[in-house]
Amino acid sequence: MNLRLGRGKALTFAALAWAAGAPALAGPTIPELVEVGDMTSLSASAGGRMVVFRLERASIADNRYLIEWYVADLQTQTVRRIAGGGNAIEGASEPLAVETAAWSPDGRFIFHRALREGAIGIWRTAIDGTGTWPVVVADGDVESMTVGASGRTLTYDLGPSRQDIERAERREYDEGILVDGSVELAQNLFRGGWVNGRLASQRMVGQWYTRAGLLWQSPRQRYSLDLETLETRPAEAIAPLARPPLTPLSGVSMVLETAGRPIARVRQEGDRSILEIERPEGIVACIRTGCPSGGIASLAWRPGADELAVTVQDSHYRQSLLLWDTVRGTVRTVVRTEGLIGGSRDAGRPCALTPDAAVCVTAGAVEPPRLERIDLSSGQRSVLFDPNALLRGRGPARVEQLTWTLADGRQVSGTVLRPPTAKGPAAAFISYYYCPGFLRGGVGDEFPFAPLVDAGFVVACLNRVPGSGNDILASYNDALASVRGVVDLLAQRGWIDRGRVGMGGFSAGSEATLWVAMNSDILSAAATASPQYSPSSYWSNVVPGRDYAEVLRAFLGLGSPDETPERWRLISPALNTERIRAPLLMQMPEQEARNSAELYTRLAASPTPVELYAFPDEGHAKVQPRHRHAAYRRSLDWFRYWLQGYTDPDRAKADQYRRWDAARDRRDAAQPSNDRNQVSADASSSKRM
């Protein structure tokens, strides 16, 4: 059987070496990437000796997350497990919600939320590991908790009762749902999304696609919990929630409010960041040499000192920890790193500060997360806990932090991973959005970087081009220019074959991927994990009461398809399928798959190979471990097939490859006869492995 590639290009002899199968580099496998251990919810005790944190690890076998609380003793440099953390509660920028850990005044316990037996309550866990006990478990879920200024109380909010929620959902199911601006027609209307750890009926409650549970406007009850006596009493009443209006940015990008401390904030003036604190006598700004003017990721006060710990990062997400003495005005760099010190995934997570040390979750491009202690005086680093030790140093890819320049002089950045034994130009995979920390699958965790490198790919993770503002076309064209620039750079170095470049993306990265496919001949294969703007999805989303039309007009310049047809023709991939030549794999969460129907059906009627998968019970990002595992495997197979001509011999995948073979043959048959004859001549002597 012949080896054939996207856009009618035949495999080179160098590529045939990779097509025979992946070399034995023993990098992290797909299951190992899915099951990387992440650490969140760091909190230091009052004296600074102990730091608690939560370990979260996906389980493909059980399709759930294993959650455990640990404590690190900084004096003895020991770490021990103290309790399980219950079941998963969905998060925002991370798969799971980051929890607050409140210390008891005597330092013997922590208080934290946990989902157990269908109820989210507050639990008390002994630091010595002797047990964990419920403190607040009520008819409604504990939706949030905040530690009081004295450290002796915490305030928590109770949502509506779970029985009331279920009755309201069943009533809608039986009687039908009145469609208004809060109803999202593209998702399942009955229990179509995750709310507080259960599949629940949802409503659109804020800007863009912000969702909450059906009774989101029901009154909440606020209580105060005494952390010594464990007594609760009602606190102030909470007004019903209201849908927030669409508002412009305020110019303040970060605010830190800590009891007994001045308010610290980061204020934006153009491209420059101003770090300042607000005292009763006035505002004090950081103006001395060493004060950061950009890239500020997080703020935290150093206990027992007038020093503000500031995490800053460069364009490659290499973070440093600074200490600003807010009385003397001096700034001192504690440590510089080659990756994140602020978290497993979210670059904005602060370290836990003690009087003497910062306890941080560190991660690098090929360095999975671990917990470190950083001495605030010397900057000396020591490892406290490494849940991913078995992955460390496995099949190390060559890591290159590259920058290149756009035509207008702006510098852009990215991280390139290369096989350590690469010979000759290789197939390339490009991901576009952000590249912080451990590069397991890019933003959204869709594309398995290490297995792609093991398969012989050069993987380039590109950071979003800065400075596009709200001009969507400028943003798209910046992405195209960045992709073109890195392909030129890597091809000039002899690392990649220009004829075998693939690209995949999530969210804004999906938009960039389709824009590159529509407006260039760079790509020979593509994959997306999020929907694009199309006329059909416009009409299903502009239900009266939604802000969808307002947002599209403000940020994309799109009115209705009848009002601005030329603008739609310019932006929408569904109206440009004749310009999309790269085979396209679409792996969508269920809540967004229906918004992809027009692009899929139009493309399926064209010669371009396309497949659409929808993952049940998923929102914007795929969270379920089995779904992430399936998406990783299929993405790897897709790009190896179209860019390396490789077919996995696993018989369970036979139907997949029969479909792809048929799609390839239809595509090739639709090409002009002279191109088709050239492809056959070039590939006639090769056999597909």
Topology:
Elements: H1 13-19, H2 30-34, E1 37-44, E2 50-59, E3 64-73, E4 78-84, E5 102-103, E6 109-116, E7 119-126, E8 132-136, E9 140-147, E10 153-161, H3 162-175, E11 193-195, E12 198-200, E13 202-204, E14 211-213, E15 221-226, E16 232-234, E17 252-256, E18 263-269, E19 272-279, E20 282-285, E21 296-301, E22 307-313, E23 319-325, E24 331-336, E25 352-353, E26 357-364, E27 367-375, E28 381-385, E29 398-405, E30 411-418, E31 426-433, H4 449-454, E32 458-463, H5 472-492, E33 496-505, H6 508-519, E34 525-528, H7 535-541, H8 548-556, H9 565-571, E35 584-589, H10 590-593, H11 597-604, E36 610-615, H12 625-644, H13 654-669, H14 673-683
Helix pairs in contact: 5-6
Summarize the structure.
This protein is an alpha+beta fold and 689 residues long.
Q: Would you give an account of this structure?
A:
By secondary structure, the chain is an alpha+beta fold. The chain has three domains: 6-32 and 397-534 and 572-683, Rossmann fold (3-Layer(aba) Sandwich), CATH 3.40.50; 148-246, no CATH class; 248-387, YVTN repeat-like/Quinoprotein amine dehydrogenase (Methylamine Dehydrogenase, Chain H, 7 Propeller). It is built from 14 helices and 36 strands. Strands 29-30-32-31-33-34-35-36 form an eight-stranded mixed sheet, with helices on both faces. Helix 5 (472-492) packs across helix 6 (508-519). Mean pLDDT is 90; it is low at 1-24 and 676-689.
